[in-house]
Amino acid sequence: RTSLTVADLVAWTQRFRDLMVEHRAALTELDSAIGDADHGSNMARGMQSAVEKLEQTAPETVGAWGKSVGMTLVSSVGGASGPLYGTFFLRFGASGGDATELDAAALGAALRAGLEGVLARGKAEPGDKTMIDALGPALDAFDAAVDQGLEAAIAAARDAAAAGRDATEPLQARKGRASYLGERSIGHVDPGATSTAYLFDALATATGS
Ligand code: ADP
Ligand code: MG
Ligand code: MG
């Protein structure tokens, strides 16, 4: 495979929803250690709403898909993660625009636009113990592997997101609720970095990468 269709993006959304529902309790458990114990329910509810919206109105372009998923997350999730993931999908969609397929380079650019949106909205920096610490390494790995083709780049991104998630454990949180704990946030994996690792796991599974 050399490109993703809008149907593949919908399959990615559904797979991510499945993982958020499956791991809802574990994500909430992570958030109970350094937050307010709602990350699993926030993400499961938000992604369930996003999938229902896609089933009501099937998007025909990358931009329409990103707008649908992003707007639904922003409006249905009250926590920090709703606006942040919402911005990711909105910016991803805006990058794809009227396209109906994304090749590896276009997917890399759309993912990068999504990351830039999260950075602009949340003002987190690498190492602040947030979803950025899975997203950033995933995109760097994608870019480094893109010459090997779409599936290799997605697989590399999935592995780097998981490593980035694991690497949040010894970090002290500097953004979001976990930052209120100061040094007591050390020694716990970040919930948002964990859901972001699932986002790339879902992309790999949905595309057979
Ligand atoms: P809330 O903290 O509002 O309850 P969630 O529990 O759903 O929201 O999401 C928490 C996750 O959001 C954190 O684990 C972290 O990864 C991410 N996060 C919080 N603030 C920021 C930020 N400013 N930039 C990037 N990610 C953030
Ligand atoms: Mg929370
Ligand atoms: Mg909350």
From TrEMBL:
GO BP field: glycerol catabolic process
Top-rank lineage group of the source organism: Bacteria
Keyword Transmembrane helix found: no
One GO MF term: glycerone kinase activity
Positions of transmembrane segments: none
Sorted UniProt keywords: Kinase, Transferase
Pfam short name (any one): Dak2
Domain DhaL, first and last residues per copy: 7-205
Assigned GO CC terms: cytosol
Protein name per UniProt: Dihydroxyacetone kinase-like protein
Organism name: Diaminobutyricimonas aerilata
